[in-house]
């Protein structure tokens, strides 16, 4: 039996369902609707997003199928506790060893260079704004002399989110903030050297962010590649220094 082609109305409805479900997914992932909270009512979602009740129901059904929400009879739709993402386990990964850090940076390069390019192509205005906000938050940490690993990770996570391919974000989330090493800036380094290192990292991040904002796919890839390969070179310099004869 031949499959009848979808009408334009049906195709448009499917697009609206996907758009609304993705909007709600992002709101849940960002914490706008934390676990246990109630989603807006069907009528509120209909009015806010300018879609029909059918679109809202199908979008909610998609979230239920992914175990992101559950409907409670007479009470509404509630966000479920997100299942804990498994932590990726890499055999013999020891962050105290420079060689392990280099290996992890090589893996990040393979994934995050492509993520930067896709983010330049696919980011939404809201995601672009988030990337700038994360970059400014990281700068604030630098300026305050505060720890930067969490803020640095948040910036890279925002870039992964802007690919609109959830697998990139999931991959970075499973590794966690330990993807951001900081041994290249040692406590014993003179203050001018530390300041120069911070300025260099900030400039590398800025080039990535601006390329993404400009929609420059290849520029974003190259800026991310330069950033991560630069980190590899800094750690290799540490490795050589550690192996110098006394």
UniProtKB/TrEMBL annotation:
Q: Name one GO molecular function term.
A: DNA-binding transcription factor activity
What ranges does the record list as Polar residues composition bias? 40-50
Determine if Transcription regulation is one of this entry's keywords: yes
Give start and end of each HTH gntR-type domain: 14-82
User: Which intervals of the chain are annotated as region Disordered?
Assistant: 31-50
PROSITE patterns this protein is in? Answer: HTH_GNTR
- Return the InterPro entries for the record: GntR_C (IPR011711), TF_FadR/GntR_C (IPR008920), Tscrpt_reg_HTH_GntR (IPR000524), WH-like_DNA-bd_sf (IPR036388), WH_DNA-bd_sf (IPR036390)
Q: Which UniProt keywords apply?
A: DNA-binding, Transcription, Transcription regulation
Presence of the UniProt keyword Transcription regulation in the record: yes
Q: Supply the PANTHER family for this chain.
A: GNTR FAMILY REGULATORY PROTEIN (PTHR43537:SF44), TRANSCRIPTIONAL REGULATOR, GNTR FAMILY (PTHR43537)
Which protein is depicted?
DNA-binding FadR family transcriptional regulator
Source organism: Rhizobium paranaense
Taxonomy, top ranks, is:
Bacteria, Pseudomonadati, Pseudomonadota, Alphaproteobacteria, Hyphomicrobiales
